[in-house]
Amino acid sequence: MISGIFYALLSATFFGFLGIFGKYGTILKISATELLTYRFIIGSLFFILFFLLKDRKLFRIDLKNFIRACVAGGIFYLLMSYFFFKALEYIPASTTSLILYIYPLMVSILSILFFGIKISRSLFISLILIASGCILIFYDAFNRSLDLRGVLFAFLAMLVFSFYLIYVQKTISNVKPITFSFYVILTAGLSFTLFNNPIGIFNLNNKQIVLVILIGIIPTFLAVMLQFIAIEKIGSVYTSIFSTIEPIVTVSASYFFLDDNIVIQQVMGMFMIILGIVLPNLKILKKRS
């Protein structure tokens, strides 16, 4: 149990640094398409190496799920990642991450509208908390006169990610999640090569090369792999609960590494969103106990 919690926390921490690395990409003058191309290609290479060393059966996927992974990676993940990294060009990493983390509210709304999901009392309270957190975050964004282009890109990233989660939940079956995720990442990387020549990595300077390697390993390969290890050890519910430290990591790291000015509205909004995410999961755990 303890090891599973550790892996979940470590995975969330690594995911939390995605926005930090992305922001450094803008500082080092690497375009969004360049950075994403290198991120997914390098991440895919490490997954290939991991599968070869651990179990080559992890490569196996049927044609139907392979096509679904191509759609998920070549459309949803490509757009979500691009919008997220474009947002980082205009607004702080902390704000970008917090707007992205509104996705549970959007997923719930879409599920209610299109799939007839009923609203329980705990879900209603959860949605109120997340919505309140959203209001505080957007109020802070407008109060500080942040570039509206960044806010729009972050919102689009959140919207596409919400559709991606629903698509994956409703379509994939009879395939290992880590295998499906590998093909999503691989497809996203290959899709980005249509917009950016991956050979361009050899033209980068030393700082840029270090950054693209780190972003391909830490918030891509390691974060995903550790997440699935955590799920195997403690289950998806516990993993999702402990993964809520991700925005805390991003906001804290933004303050320490990027000198972002963190204000009380952001902090309050962040904790309201986290509480809204954790609440329904606690209800599920109570039923299991």
UniProtKB/TrEMBL annotation:
<feature type="transmembrane region" description="Helical">
    <location>
        <begin position="180"/>
        <end position="202"/>
    </location>
</feature>
<feature type="transmembrane region" description="Helical">
    <location>
        <begin position="97"/>
        <end position="116"/>
    </location>
</feature>
<feature type="transmembrane region" description="Helical">
    <location>
        <begin position="237"/>
        <end position="257"/>
    </location>
</feature>
<keyword id="KW-0812">Transmembrane</keyword>
<protein>
    <recommendedName>
        <fullName>EamA domain-containing protein</fullName>
    </recommendedName>
</protein>
<feature type="transmembrane region" description="Helical">
    <location>
        <begin position="263"/>
        <end position="282"/>
    </location>
</feature>
<feature type="transmembrane region" description="Helical">
    <location>
        <begin position="36"/>
        <end position="53"/>
    </location>
</feature>
<feature type="transmembrane region" description="Helical">
    <location>
        <begin position="148"/>
        <end position="168"/>
    </location>
</feature>
<feature type="transmembrane region" description="Helical">
    <location>
        <begin position="123"/>
        <end position="142"/>
    </location>
</feature>
<keyword id="KW-1003">Cell membrane</keyword>
<dbReference type="InterPro" id="IPR037185">
    <property type="entry name" value="EmrE-like"/>
</dbReference>
<keyword id="KW-1133">Transmembrane helix</keyword>
<feature type="domain" description="EamA">
    <location>
        <begin position="149"/>
        <end position="279"/>
    </location>
</feature>
<feature type="transmembrane region" description="Helical">
    <location>
        <begin position="5"/>
        <end position="24"/>
    </location>
</feature>
<dbReference type="InterPro" id="IPR050638">
    <property type="entry name" value="AA-Vitamin_Transporters"/>
</dbReference>
<feature type="transmembrane region" description="Helical">
    <location>
        <begin position="65"/>
        <end position="85"/>
    </location>
</feature>
<dbReference type="InterPro" id="IPR000620">
    <property type="entry name" value="EamA_dom"/>
</dbReference>
<feature type="domain" description="EamA">
    <location>
        <begin position="3"/>
        <end position="138"/>
    </location>
</feature>
<keyword id="KW-0472">Membrane</keyword>
<dbReference type="GO" id="GO:0005886">
    <property type="term" value="C:plasma membrane"/>
</dbReference>
<dbReference type="Pfam" id="PF00892">
    <property type="entry name" value="EamA"/>
</dbReference>
<feature type="transmembrane region" description="Helical">
    <location>
        <begin position="208"/>
        <end position="230"/>
    </location>
</feature>
